[in-house]
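in:
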């Protein structure tokens, strides 16, 4: 008996040892949301046994969020596109022909060539999700000769980006939020503890432990509100009034940073004159926040300055004046001297700032296409102030319908689901009617993939490698995503897909034999080699560096922060428009508001087995007093309706939401038969915004998604 036990133990020990020996750690990058945290995957054979944040990455502390931890469940899930498919029925009918990669790529490249021949290269549109991994597909589009690269951002942060550009002449990512050293952080329309970026959450919690104050401004009591020192519930859509009130306080009570303003702020007198009527009492009446609390906030910020962050917002595609909310948020930072300051919004450092060379880019191998952008961005009347880079994809969709300024005939939606991320699926589908080719490059099912002509299935992050990425910040870095697992299905990495398309179309510059060849191309001149990534998956290039603001900082014509922007005014956009109160909901209606939750990413994780188990459906937050009027109890099923669209959802009855609005987490209400778990669960907020894609902000470019009113009744 004893002997047998000993043998058993011995076998067990040997087995464990072998297992440990077969284990390896692979440096990767989480792909479960667009934040892309550096990650380390422990794999055994072709299985992930443990996922964690890259322990070498500063601020990550080895952590991933719940969604990141569910990356393995995505790989294990059979309910994702497993092989290339070409549509066999009508668009959206769900009839597919399984094809080989060869056939799929030959078909797509053949159609692209035909369409280019017939309508010119400019008739090809590609949109993606932005971020550090886009060089290959951008280069592919440029090689074809099309200027029409877009991303998702008119449904996300365009207003913030254009606010930064209008004031500073540089974009929102040319400064970063130095949470770690902040003394007061104001989170306005920013639910940082649920709309997660792991490093930012860690840094802010550390700062909080060290005494940093948090003020949260929201229309409901979020997790962020619960952790904040001060919570200000505003009437939905009145943030501009609040910010004007704060600016009034800072200026009229001399609480602002006079040295910084004298040196770097242009048009302070114009601002002073403009804010004269907008005092704290005015702001209180507009927002519902008591005037005393607005005055107190101004005092607290002045005391903590310049280590203050007034967050300009992230998902700000909400109201007709969201652009001005972002602009005034930046102006408050400027008045507090926090632009460029430690604990505020320091300038990011790129490789050049620490004496290093940046990555070489594939996109630079090709000449600038001659055609002007189809969305009119950068050249059309009223659109000259917009940033060309990712354009405004909603306006490119308009060109599909109108053929103006010229037609778009082919569209590649790369890691982008516009049918869920823009309002009113049926309306957007109608806009796509004139397309002769619609391709979805994706790792999960989505409304867009289901409606496409061709699906090119991408491998999930753990099953693919990506191009080396560059991260700017206090200390600039390169980081790499290596392949942790062999793909379970017939899916490919994006670099393979575009390399093969390029091969089919005779684009030699993109015909790389391996990912190593691409990495070597990127790293030439940098002094870094592929082998250097072995140790930690990342390369710190230098720093951290805090660069004081100087006469090269602001890229505006004057070299200063321009409150009055000639570029905006030239396009008929007022720099300082008067405040206009948002419409009150018509009787019996509620403004529909939306946002994120810690357990899901946008629309693409609801069907993830692990995350679905944690949160299978969304619920409708509704104010208790309103619910009582409607006879709706907490947890009851209600019908929420706008026009012809209605859905059933459970009510979350709470005092923690403003009575004018109802709130739901975005991304639910899936309808596809291929997603057995997500199908029919909860309601899609985007369906409650009829033809909402047509209502967009002429100043900031964001779609105004919270300008819709719904009815609620017991189901
Ligand atoms: N009504 C309403 N609309 C919204 C929002 C809202 O709250 N309400 N939120 C807005 C915001 S903030 C944003 S950013 C957009 C997001 O909109 P999208 O960019 O469309 O959203 P995602 O779901 O992140 O990604 C789109 C698709 O890419 C696929 N995908 C994701 N990651 C990867 C990857 O690593 N590789 C590949 N191949 N595919 C991937 C997903 O499976 C998904 O099908 O939506 C916006 N639209
Ligand atoms: N877990 C998780 N994290 C994510 C994502 C995800 O899908 N899931 N997506 C990532 C992406 S793409 C983005 S853009 C960011 C988004 O990050 P955030 O912009 O912080 O997230 P949201 O939840 O969209 O919106 C923030 C808050 O705005 C509030 N709000 C609505 N209307 C108003 C108003 O009129 N005034 C004020 N003051 N507040 C209002 C909502 O109640 C919500 O709590 O999150 C990123 N991180
Ligand atoms: S925030 Fe979460 S889901 Fe997003 S990249 Fe980081 S770990 Fe992944
Ligand atoms: Mo976003």
């Amino acid at each position: 008996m004893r002997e047998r036990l000993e043998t058993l133990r011995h076998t067990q020990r040997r087995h464990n040892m072998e297992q440990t020996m077969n284990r390896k750690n692979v440096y990767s990058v989480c792909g479960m949301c667009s934040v892309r945290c550096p990650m380390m995957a422990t794999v055994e054979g072709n299985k992930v046994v443990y996922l964690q944040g890259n322990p070498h990455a500063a601020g990550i502390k080895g952590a991933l969020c719940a969604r990141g931890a569910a990356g393995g469940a995505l790989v294990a899930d059979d309910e994702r596109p497993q092989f290339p498919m070409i549509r066999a029925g009508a668009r959206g009918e769900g009839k597919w022909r399984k094809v080989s990669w060869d056939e799929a790529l030959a078909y797509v490249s053949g159609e692209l060539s035909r369409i280019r021949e017939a309508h010119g290269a400019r008739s090809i549109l590609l949109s993606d999700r932005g971020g550090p991994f886009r060089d290959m597909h951008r280069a592919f589009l440029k090689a074809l000769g099309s200027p029409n690269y877009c991303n998702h951002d008119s449904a996300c942060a365009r207003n913030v980006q254009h606010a930064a550009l209008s004031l500073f002449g540089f974009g929102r990512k040319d400064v970063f939020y130095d949470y770690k050293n902040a003394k007061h952080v104001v989170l306005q329309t920013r639910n940082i503890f649920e709309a997660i970026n792991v490093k930012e959450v860690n840094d802010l919690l550390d700062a909080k432990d060290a005494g940093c104050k948090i003020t949260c401004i929201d229309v409901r009591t979020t997790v962020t509100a619960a952790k904040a020192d001060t919570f200000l519930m505003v009437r939905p859509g009145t943030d501009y009034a609040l910010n004007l009130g704060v600016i009034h306080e800072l200026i009229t009570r001399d609480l602002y940073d006079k040295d910084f303003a004298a040196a770097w702020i242009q048009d302070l007198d114009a601002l002073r004159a403009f804010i004269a009527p907008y005092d704290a009492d005015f702001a209180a009446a507009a927002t519902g926040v008591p005037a005393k609390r607005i005055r107190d906030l101004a005092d607290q910020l002045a005391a903590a300055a310049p280590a203050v962050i007034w967050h300009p917002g992230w998902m700000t595609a909400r109201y007709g004046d969201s652009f001005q909310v972002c602009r005034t948020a930046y102006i408050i930072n400027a008045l507090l001297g926090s632009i460029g300051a430690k604990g505020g919004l320091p300038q990011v450092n790129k490789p050049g700032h620490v004496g290093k060379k940046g990555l070489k880019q594939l996109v630079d191998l090709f000449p600038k296409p001659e055609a002007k952008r189809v969305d009119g961005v950068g050249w059309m009347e009223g659109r000259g102030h917009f940033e060309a880079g990712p354009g405004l994809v909603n306006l490119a969709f308009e060109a599909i319908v109108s053929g103006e300024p010229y037609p778009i005939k082919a569209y590649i939606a790369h890691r982008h689901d516009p049918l869920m991320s823009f309002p009113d699926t049926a309306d957007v589908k109608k806009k796509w009617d004139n397309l002769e080719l619609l391709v979805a490059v994706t790792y999960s099912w989505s409304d867009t993939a289901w409606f496409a002509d061709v699906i090119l299935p991408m491998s999930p992050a753990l099953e693919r490698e990506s191009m080396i990425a560059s991260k700017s910040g206090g200390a600039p870095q390169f980081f790499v995503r290596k392949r942790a697992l062999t793909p379970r299905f017939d899916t490919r990495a994006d670099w393979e897909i575009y390399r093969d398309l390029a091969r089919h179309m005779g684009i030699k510059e993109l015909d790389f034999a391996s990912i190593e060849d691409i990495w070597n191309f990127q790293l030439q001149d940098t002094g870094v080699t592929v082998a250097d990534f072995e140790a930690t998956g990342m390369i710190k290039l230098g720093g951290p560096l805090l660069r004081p603001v100087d006469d090269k900082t602001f890229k505006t014509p004057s070299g200063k922060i321009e409150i009055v922007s000639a570029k905006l005014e030239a396009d008929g956009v007022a720099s300082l428009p008067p405040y206009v109160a948002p419409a009150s909901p018509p009787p019996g209606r509620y403004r529909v508001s939306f946002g994120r939750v810690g357990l899901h990413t946008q629309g693409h994780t609801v069907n993830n087995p692990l995350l679905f188990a944690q949160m299978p459906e969304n619920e409708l937050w509704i104010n208790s007093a309103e619910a009582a009027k409607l006879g709706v109890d907490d947890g009851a099923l209600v019908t929420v309706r706008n026009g012809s669209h209605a859905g059933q959802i459970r009510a979350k009855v709470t005092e923690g939401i403003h009575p004018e609005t109802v709130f739901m987490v975005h991304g639910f209400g899936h309808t596809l038969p291929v997603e057995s778990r997500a199908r029919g669960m909860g309601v899609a907020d985007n369906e409650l915004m009829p033809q909402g894609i047509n209502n967009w902000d002429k100043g900031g470019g964001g779609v105004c998604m919270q300008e819709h009113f719904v009815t609620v009744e017991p189901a």
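note: Residues 2-76 form a domain with the N-terminal domain of TfIIb fold (CATH 2.20.25.90).
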